[in-house]
Specification:
By secondary structure, this protein is an alpha+beta fold. It has two domains: 172 residues, 3-Layer(aba) Sandwich (D-Maltodextrin-Binding Protein, domain 2); 157 residues, Periplasmic binding protein-like II (D-Maltodextrin-Binding Protein, domain 2, 3-Layer(aba) Sandwich). It has 16 helices and eleven strands. Strands 1, 2, 3, 6, 9, 10 and 11 form a seven-stranded mixed β-sheet that branches. A two-stranded antiparallel sheet has the order 4-5. Strands 7-8 form a two-stranded antiparallel sheet. β7 and β8 form a beta hairpin. It is globular and about 75 Å long. The N and C termini lie far apart (54 Å).
Length: 414
């Protein structure tokens, strides 16, 4: 008698190399665990855009791996389906996940995605460069003031005054220019309807950014920064020993291990202006969604449920050398994880002050405006007040327009 044909699930993902191998292991494990559903994973370039286009055309994948910043705009466009009923039926409650991560999957009171591989960011420092500067390699800075003093001791110039080594640069690598206000006790919106990027704490953070070009010179830092190589290469500014301290994510270990395995480095929470804030971090995550026109919703969720099981999640996160976004984690996961600082990054994710990027439908516009303001500030073209007041003016208009649209549709803005 012929075996019943399996239901085929199409899963689109962005990961390649060891990250893709880690998810492939989860897919293979799921396929071997039962005989009713078969998942085929395809690596798709620019998977967020391709998923959106395919959904609009009525032919999306059954499951897609997106970024956390896709959740709100995709939910707003009804391109992905809420998962609350299926999660409830499976007995999966919010406390199954760490709050910061499941919070990033919720919008307008519904859950539109589930976390997969998470990350937090930390100060990474080169211990050998600390020793050469007469600093204790086991004592990184905890406050912004300490960071600045150490950065100055770690900075070197040649006889002509040209910078040859920097202790720290607020724009390296430049991926979180929007986030500096949080390390000074600020925020970017109040969670309701007010843009808050020009509050005193945010302005203080941009003054701090500008202090580096005031101290070291715009031209000097521009020339120095122009010599940085690609991030994923031995010429990376931190791995090449050009910058002694850098803000980076959980994944940085993978690149150090690949390109500069003999490097002596450490990681600790990024310094804050107020010692009471020490231990906070930027949180980041990948997510799984089910497109709204998925042909096999129930079966797609069976796969999603397997990925977020403790077994599936630990297999995935161990393969990517990240920590788990789940509340419960096995002792074996930490024991077997090769990342030497994995508990640090996991502990920062549990800090109630740790934050994700703002959940706004217009976050792309907001972050771009903040990047422009950041660049004008550090290049000494405007004052921090001028830069952030301009962003506030533009983005409050955008927020007000969004709120009016939500009210017309009878929707909550959060």
């Amino acid at each position: 008698m012929a075996l019943p044909k399996r239901i085929e699930i199409e899963y689109w993902e962005k990961w390649t190399r060891f990250e893709g191998d880690a998810m492939a292991a989860v897919v293979n494990s799921f396929n071997a665990s039962q005989d009713r559903i078969h998942v085929t994973m395809s690596v798709v370039s620019d998977v967020p855009l391709r998923t959106l286009i395919a959904t609009a055309g009525g032919n999306p994948p059954d499951v897609a791996g997106l970024f956390d910043f896709n959740v709100v705009p995709y939910a707003d466009k009804n391109a992905i389906m809420p998962l609350d009923d299926m999660l409830a039926k499976a007995g999966i409650k919010d406390d199954y996940f760490l709050p910061v991560f499941i919070g990033g999957c919720r919008y307008r009171g519904k859950t539109w995605a589930v976390p997969t591989t998470p990350a937090t960011v930390a100060l990474h420092w080169n211990k050998e460069m600390f020793v050469a500067a007469g600093l204790d390699p086991e004592k990184p800075p905890k406050t912004i003031a300490e960071l600045d003093r150490m950065a100055d001791r770690l900075t070197r110039r040649d006889r002509t005054g040209r910078i040859t080594q920097m202790g720290f640069l607020p724009w390296e690598p430049g991926w979180w220019n929007w986030a500096w206000p949080y390390f000074f006790g600020g925020r970017l919106w109040d969670g309701q309807g007010n843009i808050t990027c020009n509050e005193p704490e945010a302005i203080e953070s941009f003054r701090w950014v500008q202090s580096y070009t005031k101290k070291y010179g715009v031209t000097h830092v521009q020339i120095f920064s122009s010599g940085f190589g690609n991030f994923a290469s031995p010429q990376n500014a931190f791995m090449a020993g050009k910058v002694a301290m850098e803000i980076q994510g959980t994944w940085m270990y993978n690149f150090i291990n690949e390109y500069t395995p003999k490097m002596k480095w450490g990681a600790a929470p990024f310094p804050t202006s107020d010692p009471r804030l020490y231990g906070i971090s930027i949180a980041d995550q990948d997510v799984l969604v089910i497109p709204s026109d998925s042909r096999h919703r129930a079966e797609a969720f069976e796969f999603v449920k397997y990925v977020i099981s403790q077994k599936g999640m630990e297999l995935l996160c161990l393969g990517q050398r990240k920590f788990s976004p789940l509340t419960l984690v096995s002792p074996e996961f930490y024991r077997d994880n090769p990342h030497p600082q994995i508990r640090l990054f996991a502990d920062m994710a549990r800090n109630p002050l740790t934050f994700l990027l703002p959940q706004l439908t217009f976050w792309d516009e907001y972050s771009e405006e903040l990047n422009v303001a950041f660049q004008k500030t550090y290049l000494m073209q405007v004052t921090p007040e001028e830069a952030l007041n301009d962003v506030k003016r533009k983005m409050q208009k955008r927020m007000d327009r969004d709120l009016r649209r939500m009210r017309r549709l009878g929707l909550s803005p959060t």
